[in-house]
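Extended Data, panel c. Modelled sequence:
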Amino acid sequence: MTDPYSPCMLCPRRCGADRSGGRTGYCKTTSAVTVNLSMIHRGEEPVLGGKGGCGAVFFEGCSLRCIFCQNQGITSPTGKGKVYDENSLADLFKKLESDGAGAIDLVTPLHFAPTVANAVRLAKDTGLGIPVICNCSGYESVNTLKLFDGLIDIYLPDLKYYSSKVSSKYASAPDYFTTAALALDEMFRQAGSIKLDDAGKTMTSGMIVRHMMLPGNLFDSKHIIDYLASRFGNDIYISLMSQYTPMPHLLENENAPEELRRTLSKDNYERLCDHLSDLGQTNAFVQEMSSQGTLMIPDFKL
């Protein structure tokens, strides 16, 4: 039987690292599935998790590694995370459900996809009764996503960049948009159009695509919104985020892009929201400008 972690081709980077042998991939992790933090999280879109909130599971490592990442502290191993196998991970999901979570929110899990998919299957086979959310960067391999077919109820990807120039500058991923567009199509194939519970308030399946607007990138953001509205329309939710906050590592680096060292302007964000409305998108979420700052960033174990 082939080892999916060695050589590792799970993400679009296809780095080929022997992660099972202890080498780290582009994601900065081996095959040891490491969770930095699990918690009841009430900061996701209001249709997710219901009154109980989401049982968020934050995995260490990332295969995109944007230079401005709001979760920068855990994109590389911290030495303080906990290693799980598929059985203990399934138990964690069920514990979060017993703690009152209305959904399981897997945050950046796909560099551990084979193990996480087995854990979700095991949890569902042994009684997990709440939706499972895959919360990811959008820069994913279609073949890896297929490991989750029938297991993920709600996909919550980002669509970060349209221009290859922008994605190269911020994430060394010139193929970001073309890769993410294929990934989103696969996610939508699996999850389908939005479905809500009987009360019409809590999402049970479907897709929410997030776009966090970046300072100085209004036109790139408009291209993203145009694409999502034309491709999926109101079969999905589009979540426009204003919460961009310059992280300390950018503020301290004089060579960092100047635009990323400042906050997002209210005027540009409102123009993007108006543009989305003009496109006829009614299934949408927007944020208050007060979401900027560190309030939305969990207290990771660092």
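The chain has one domain: 33-291. This feature is highlighted in the accompanying rendering.
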